């Protein structure tokens, strides 16, 4: 184990930051045969980006949806800002893998949709949506429709919508999986920048070790089904330089290597 990788127990530095989300003894079964998650205990510190990483089928999306309140756990509870989750709530926004855009609505309406659901008046919600459309680099595309956009642009609309509702916690389910490598990198950089500006707590599902290390304050490694927390890793990567330099940084490369060794046995 190199110094770049630290396995943390629940009492270390990150956990002294106020947790905004607490996952307590969560288990999930689908029917009688599939045990997806077993006794998951995690805290998510305010303002940090935590990735959920692990082999296919280990329950990453299931856990994210339980935190979102979109799925009910079989056992245990999720507490967000001190309250037990019983369903979706305004302090959490979910960014779906396929961005879940409405094909018949413009970029502006899609980005404002969360606010529309909250009953915010049109002028106010469009003003807010325009601000976030600008933040994600889509100014000038307000009146376009999803089919007129690239995958990367659609993904940005999904993100603008999540940001516009001003949730404290953004839950992102592999938001980069449907775009090409170039867009993926660009979007990763935007996400790092947005995290600085917006100071959100982000919980992020990914398959990519590189992506997790590049973006995360903490990485939760889940074991194969039934998913359990196998390690919590805090990559100490200096992200102050340009992206290409970060990806050549020894701490970054060592951490990728360490996680790869840990996960190699689970590879399909
Ligand atoms: N609705 C469902 N009914 C039955 N089994 C399900 C259902 N949803 C998920 N599962 C199973 O539960 C397990 C966990 O699924 P989940 O999608 O959470 O894993 P994941 O780690 O996100 O997978 P991947 O990395 O492949 O996206 C898998 O074995 C999956 O087949």
Automatic annotation (TrEMBL):
GO MF annotation, one: ATP binding
Keyword annotations of the record: ATP-binding, Nucleotide-binding, Transport
Residues in ABC transporter domain copies: 21-249
Name by which UniProt lists this protein: ABC transporter ATP-binding protein
UniProt-listed Gene3D superfamilies: P-loop containing nucleotide triphosphate hydrolases (3.40.50.300)
Top-rank taxon, per record: Bacteria
InterPro entries: AAA+_ATPase, ABC_transporter-like_ATP-bd, ABC_transporter-like_CS, ABC_transporter_ATP-bind, P-loop_NTPase
Family assignment from sequence similarity: Belongs to the ABC transporter superfamily.
Source organism of this protein record: Flaviflagellibacter deserti
């Amino acid at each position: 184990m190199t110094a770049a990788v630290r396995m943390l127990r629940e009492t270390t530095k990150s956990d002294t930051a106020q947790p905004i989300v607490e996952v307590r003894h969560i288990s999930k079964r689908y029917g009688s045969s599939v045990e997806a998650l077993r006794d998951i205990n995690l805290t998510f510190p305010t303002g940090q980006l935590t990735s959920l990483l692990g082999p296919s089928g280990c329950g990453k999306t299931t856990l994210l949806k339980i935190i979102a309140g979109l799925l009910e756990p079989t056992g245990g509870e999720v507490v967000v800002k001190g309250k037990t989750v019983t369903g979706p709530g305004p302090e959490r926004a979910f960014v779906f893998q396929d961005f879940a855009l409405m094909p018949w609505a413009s970029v502006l309406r899609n980005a404002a949709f969360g606010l529309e659901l909250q009953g915010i008046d049109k002028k106010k919600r469009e003003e807010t949506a325009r601000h976030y459309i600008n933040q994600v680099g889509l100014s000038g595309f307000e009146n376009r429709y999803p089919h007129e956009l690239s995958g990367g642009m659609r993904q940005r609309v999904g993100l603008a919508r999540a940001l516009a509702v001003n949730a404290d916690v953004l839950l992102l389910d592999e938001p980069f999986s449907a775009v090409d490598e170039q867009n993926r990198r660009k979007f990763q950089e935007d996400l790092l920048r947005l995290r600085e500006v917006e100071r959100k707590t982000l919980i992020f599902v990914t398959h990519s070790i590189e992506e997790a290390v590049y973006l995360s304050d903490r990485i939760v490694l889940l074991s194969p089904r039934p998913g359990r927390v196998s390690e919590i890793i805090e990559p100490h990567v200096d992200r102050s330089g340009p992206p290409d330099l970060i990806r050549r940084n020894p701490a970054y490369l060592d951490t990728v290597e360490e996680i790869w060794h840990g996960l190699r046995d689970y590879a399909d």
